[in-house]
C-alpha cells in the first residue's frame, strides 16, 4: 500500500516565542505544567503517523485535545513548531507559500465542521471554488462541480444558495467542494459534529458508501468514539496533544492502551464495532455429496447438532440438523434432507445487523463476499460481545472444549479447508 | 501662580513656523498638483449635472429610490426635487450634488483600500486608528486655514476639506467588515489554495460589502454636513446660498438653501441606506450583484452558532 501522508514527530506550541515551552516539553513536563509556568500552550506533542492510500484514518479526541490543530497542520493552515509532514514528496511543514498553495490545489482539500460555505455564492459556485482558484475556466469548472454535486445527490440544487439548504445538505455541499478538485487526500474536521443525530447517521452511512466508490485517503476528525469506530480503518486516540493509542476499531475496543481509552470504550456501542468475522467460530461443514452417515460422523466429531452444507467450491448450500439426519436412512444423500435456506450473514456484517437473523435462534452461517462459508455464529454468542468483560468468561468456556459460546476470534477469516483440519486435530 | 508663569510654550508660533515656513514654500507645488484630479472629476460631474435636464435627473433619482427603498421614497424624491426647482435653487443643488459625489468618490478610492490594508495588519490599524480619531474630532474650521494656505480658495480646496472630514467612517467600516468575516470561511478559501488577493476578492470583500455600504452612507452624510463650511473657502452650491444669506441677514435665503441641503441629504441617505440594508421595504434588488447581499443576510440569521 502506498503511504499518502506521512507525519514525523510534529510539535506545535502556541506563544512559544522564546522556545521555553519546547525545552520544558523535552524535559518531560506536562501540558498543564508548561502552561502554568510559561503561558505556552501545547497544541501538538510529538505526533507521528502514516496514512495509506484509500484509508480512513480517524483522529478522535475531546475538545482541547489538539485534533483540530493537528488537522490544520496537515494542509499548512497552521505551521507546526517542528516536525515534518510529507504529502506527495513535499514537506508541508516547511515549504514556502507558493508550493503550499500548489499542494492545496492539487493534493489535499478540507471539509469543515460548520460547513464554511460561502453564503454569497451559489451551491455550484461553492463547489467550484477550488477549481476557480486554480484557474479552471467557467464552463469546465461548472461541469466538474455538477459532477461532484451528483456524487452527493445534490445536483438539482446547483443554483440554490447554501442558506436555503438544511444542515445535512450544506455539509454534502462541503463534501462535494472537497471532492471537486479530485484531491488525493481529504481532511474532514468534525464534519458531522454540527448535525442532528439522525442526519449524522445518514451522513456517516453515505460517507462509507461514497468511500467504497472513491477510495480517497481521508483524515477524519471527531470527538465521537462511536463515529470513529464506525468510519475508521484505523483510529488514533488523542489526549493533550499526543496520540494515546493508534489501531483498528477492534484493537482499541478489545485492548485499550490505558485507563483513558478504557473509559471511552466503556460505553460505546460494541454491536457496531465487531463484525460477524470477529465473532465467528470455526464452522463444521459437510460436503454436498456426502451421505447422511458421513454427515453424522462429522457432527459427532465436532460434537454439534447442527452443521452447514457446502458445495465443491465451498459455497454455502444449506444446513442439516441431527434430528433430520437420524430420521432417514444412513445412505440417503445429504441433499435430500438439508434445509436449503440456512440463516446466514456476511463476514463484514456488524453485530447490530445480525439481530434479525439471530432471531430464528438457529446457528448462523458466516459467508464471505463470494458466498463461501467461512464460519458460524451461535445466536447466543452475540450477547457475549456486547459487554466489555465477557472475554474471560468465554475463554473459560473455550478451555472446556465447548465452542457453542464462541470465543472472540482474532483471526478474521479462515478458509473452510483449514477449518476441517483444525477440527480433525481437535478431535484427535 | 500657575505653570505659565514659569514657562510659556509658543505653540501657535511653532505651528505658524511649520506651516508658513516649511510646508507652504516647500510643498506648495505638490499640493497644487493634488487638486488637479479633484478638479477634473468635479468639473466632469458639475458639467454633467448642469447639462442633464432637471426632469431627467428627478426621474432617475425617483426610479433608483423606488427600486432600492420603495414607492414612498420615490414620491418623496419627486416632490422634494420639484420643490427645489420651484424655489429656484436647482443649479446650486446640482453643484452641491457634484461636490458631494466627487468627495465621496475620492473617499471611496482612498478609504476602501486603506480599510483593507488596516484590516490585514494590527500594526497598521494601531497607527491609523488615532489618525482617524483626530480627523473626526478636530473641528473642521481648524484645518480650513492651512488648507487655504496650501491649496488656495475655490471648489477643489473645499472638496479636499470635505474628503478629510468624511474619510474616517469608510475606513473604519471597511476594516470592521473585513475583520468580521467568519474565520472558517477564510480558512476554507485558503485550504483550497487561494492566494490572499483571491480570498480578498472572492470572500472577504463580498461578505464585507454591507458594512462597507453602511460606511459609505456615513461618509456621504458627513460630506453633506461639510457643504456649508466648505463654502466659506469658496466652494459654491447650496452652501454659498446659506452663507450669503447669513452674511446679509437674509433669513429667507439662508432657510431656502438649508431646505435644499436637507432634501438632498434625505434622498441620498435613504438610497445609500437602502443599498446597505437591502430588504428594508424594497421588493427587488437594484442590481444582480446585490442579490448576494440579500443571501448573506439570510445565511447569517440561519447559520448555526460557532459554539461547540
Brief rundown of the structure:
With about 425 residues, chain A is an alpha/beta fold.
Main traits of this protein?
heterodimer, A: 428 residues, alpha/beta, Rossmann fold, 2 domains, six-stranded mixed sheet, four-stranded antiparallel sheet, 16 strands, 21% strand, B: 308 residues, mainly alpha, MetI-like fold, 14 helices, 82% helix
Describe what you observe in this structure.
The complex is a heterodimer of chains A (428) and B (308). Chain A has two domains: 3-107 and 183-268, Rossmann fold, CATH 3.40.50.300; 276-427, Roll (CBS-domain). Helices cover 38% and strands 21% of the residues of chain A. Chain A is built from 20 helices and 16 strands. In chain A, the strands form four sheets. In chain A, strands 6-7-8-3-9-10 form a six-stranded mixed β-sheet, with helices on both faces. A four-stranded antiparallel β-sheet of chain A has the order 2-1-4-5, with helices on both faces. A three-stranded mixed β-sheet of chain A has the order 11-12-13. The longest helix of chain A is centred in the middle third of the chain and has 18 residues, at 197-214. The two termini of chain A are 41 Å apart. Chain B has one domain: Orthogonal Bundle (MetI-like fold). Helices cover 82% and strands 0% of the residues of chain B.
**Helix content range of chain A:** 25-40%
- Our count of helices of chain B gives 14
CATH hierarchy, class of the largest domain in chain A: Alpha Beta
Q: Give the CATH topology of chain B.
A: MetI-like fold
Please name the fourth-level CATH homologous superfamily of chain B.
MetI-like
Oligomerization category of the chains in this entry: heterodimer
What Rg of chain B is obtained from the alpha carbons, in whole angstroms? Answer: 22 Å
Overall mean confidence score, pLDDT of chain B? 87
Estimate the strand proportion of chain B: under 5%
The low-confidence parts of chain B are 280-286, 292-308
